[in-house]
Amino acid sequence: MNISSVNNFVDGKFSDSSSNKLDVWSPINGKKISEVNLSNADELDKIVSSAQNAFKSWSQIVLKDRAKIFYKFRDLLQKNIDDLAVAIREENGKTIVEARAEVMNGIELAEFASSMPQIINDEIQVVSKGVECRSSHYPLGVVGSITPFNFPIMVPLWTILNSIVLGNTMILKPSEKTPLGATLIAKLLTEAGLPNGVFNIINGDKNIVEAMCNHKSIKALTFVGSTKVAKIVYRSATASLKRCISLGGAKNHLILLPDAHKDMAANDIINSMSGCAGQRCMAASAMVAVGDTQSIIEKICEKALTVIPGKNLGAVISKESKSRIEKYISDAEKAGAKVLVDGRGVIVEGKEDGYYVGPTVIDYAKPDMAIAKEEVFGPVLVIIRTNDIDEAIAIENSSNYGNASSVYTQNGNLSDYVTKRVSAGMVGVNIGVPVPKEPFSFGGWNDSRFGAGDITGKSSIYFWTKLKKRTTKWNPEAKKDWMT
Ligand code: NAD
Questions:
Q1: Where exactly are the structural domains of the chain?
Q2: CATH class as words, domain 8-249+444-469
Q3: CA angle, 281 then 284 then 290, to 5°
Q4: What pLDDT shows up at residue 474?
Q5: Domain 252-429 class, CATH top level
Q6: Is residue 301 among the annotated active site residues?
Q7: Structure pTM?
């Protein structure tokens, strides 16, 4: 994978920018792998004009024909899975197995977009004798998407595919830390036959995000990233009267009950906490262990020791992330928590400059410790002990976040009791990463999501379209006083 300079993608062409550039580093070995444009507001104006132009014809193509491009795109993702996975691994640091899984998720998103003609129907009903109401979806125009570093291909595809198949034209602003994936998406969409100007990329940092939020001709904006920035983007985009869904960070709580299946729970919890080096917004982060769960906790630690940095555990995104995560662990230890498995100070042979943190399990944390409340975004599981199921639920409920929460138990009644009471948009029963697959939609609650509706699946159809409601009367016998 060699992209020495990541450029904007405008009107079907990669175009160098006159603006400053930022180095892109590989987390695997700390080496520079590329550089990326930091675009300015004038460049955004040009991209918006090109996308506005493309919208005129793209929005007029019937849905079935637009969808055909995504059949081809789906197959191209499959055909290029090895190259895509290598690119993800290099820029993001995850393992090749995880990178391939990310592309597989992208394939499912493309299948959903391809099946849009089978999913979306106008609604028609005779509402009074001879009078019919019909509600139809119309695209919005030029729309934008701002994405984080942790899924350089899957998260951009959450928004690109559904928005475009529904007739909009899209401007993506990928994370400046992982901008390569978007370039590959652009190449494959072009190969699949997407007309010029329908999909565009503007690279940059917070300045270009601000310009996107304020741009009058961008009709809707999605954001995925940390809660701090999600709030900034939501406030700013809606202040300029755009539709906005803004997804933020997470602190996902597992509730472990004593009757949980020991092996299954331990495997699943460690996979959830350490997968993608803990840098998933759906990762298990805090575990509230209820009652006598000691033997399951021992199994969890045993399993944690099979997770080896540089083998089945990838790197975290940056040197700063590594220091931040290690500081959380040290602070928790100083505050009285017990580090059962310690991932600090890890060095991987042959990748001494990579940014690795080993799997870490911390027991006897208190709910008010920073490590138990804040998003750590690393392979760290913090355990809070309690003897009471309602107290466990109260601890989960006290979190500002609300992306995911899972319960581990063999008891159906208890699983119902917990899942109905936790304050999270995506809940799991014996599932550590309860991501709803299409056609279900993805979206959290509380400070994990601002705006109405979810970002993927059927819910996203309402975000990317506006409804036109038509009322028709042809029958001369229809009631004359209709709506008077
Ligand atoms: P981030 O918030 O730092 O950056 C996300 C995007 O915002 C990037 O494109 C970046 O250029 C831009 N940005 C950064 N600072 C900005 C500012 N001050 N103003 C305007 N734009 C700014 O997030 P990240 O570190 O790239 O990603 C990790 C975060 O994303 C975690 O908090 C994780 O939980 C979250 N995340 C959430 C979901 C979800 O579905 N809720 C999914 C993936 C990641």
A1: 8-249+444-469, 252-429
A2: alpha beta
A3: 145
A4: 79
A5: alpha beta
A6: no
A7: 0.97
